[in-house]
Amino acid sequence: MTTTPRFTGDANPYGGGDPYADYRTADFPFTHLVDLADGRLGAGVVAANDEFFAERENLLKPEPAEFDPERFGHKGKIMDGWETRRRRGASAAEPHPAEGDHDWALVRLGAPGVVRGLIVDTAHFRGNYPQSVSVEATSLPGSPSPGELLAPDVEWTTLVPRTAVGGHAANGFAVDVVRRFTHLRVNQHPDGGIARLRVHGEVAPDPAWLAALGTFDLVALENGGEVEDASDRFYSPATHTIAPGRSRKMDDGWETRRRRDKGNDWIRYRLAERSEIRAVEIDTAYLKGNSAGWAAISVRDGEDGERSEILPRTRLQPDTNHRFVLPEPVRGTHVRIDIFPDGGISRLRLFGSLTDEGAARLAARHEELGG
Q1: Residue 352 half-sphere exposure, CB side, CA atoms within 13 Å?
Q2: Reported confidence tier of residue 26, pLDDT bands at 50, 70, 90
Q3: How far, rounded to the nearest angstrom, does the alpha carbon of residue 262 sit from its chain's CA centroid?
Q4: 123 secondary structure, DSSP code
Q5: Tally of helices (H runs) and strands (E runs) in the chain
Q6: What is the pLDDT of residues 77-135, one digit of tens each?
Q7: Which of 197, 287, 335, 347 could be bridged to 291 by S-S, CB 3.0 to 4.6 A?
Q8: How far apart (Å, rounded) are the C-alpha atoms in residues 337 and 256?
Q9: What is the C-alpha separation between 125 and 47, in angstroms, rounded?
Q10: How much is the pTM?
Q11: Cα separation of 105 and 135, whole Å?
């Protein structure tokens, strides 16, 4: 673990007014990477030893945690997070929890991959956050049950050693373990509440699965595609354009601010590996008065390759899925979409298959990461 800044110490009690008034956060160096624990990728909290006050599923909600000071249930204050009951010691003579006592939750990553950083967000947990947290990871094939994950022969690797955290704060941890993981075990010591968990990293797809598919979306997050850069992220992140499924609302795509110059906006992508692209989809779902007017797509083969246009500047319609079959397959490793002059798209799909060279490199990387 590196010396990424994190926030510790007591939070101020809620004094009314803006519930985020003393919320402490920071710019972490890994948050541009995909959240491997995003429920929209298929992530889930598969088990927890205790969820008395607030259920474990809240940990992976994509939206920020909310706080309603007047919302109470029959068990007490209802919190938007995962909160366990207070632990007690063994007897009146020893009323405090033992040193090793802790609560845990098992998280299935939506896309297996290399974890580069985690955020353990204790938003709105001010007097009920854990004293410290630790995070472990493992890699198991298939869809293991909680019992299989907790079996004594399962090897767990420490990503975050037991570390003090702060209340009502986004506690960030950089991770330097370069291995492919499928599941996490999040521990809070000795008890308390965590609002959200974010697991930023790089998707490491299973090459056997992609080989079985043959033709697939080469730029999709779940298949190892990645946004390298974008001209503008004002309203929503460019990563949304390669998320699973169709957009469900306007901010579930990519939208730029209004341009007041003669330029245009763009996104650069890295494909899962070297591939042959055969078809393209550009979707503007839910973008009606703010969709891009035109779009063009170009491909680059290799880091230093020349860009070549595969889709000339083409008119886009609002709230429409546009499909284009290329005249012939185009090989490449990187793709750029340019939109004119501004606005947004909700999804980009690039259908094709890996080249023999790309498949071999992907398989080698999979083995290197312990997959």
Answers
A1: 29
A2: confident
A3: 34
A4: T
A5: 3, 21
A6: 888 999 999 999 999 999 999 899 999 999 999 999 999 999 999 999 999 999 999 99
A7: 287
A8: 14
A9: 21
A10: 0.91
A11: 10
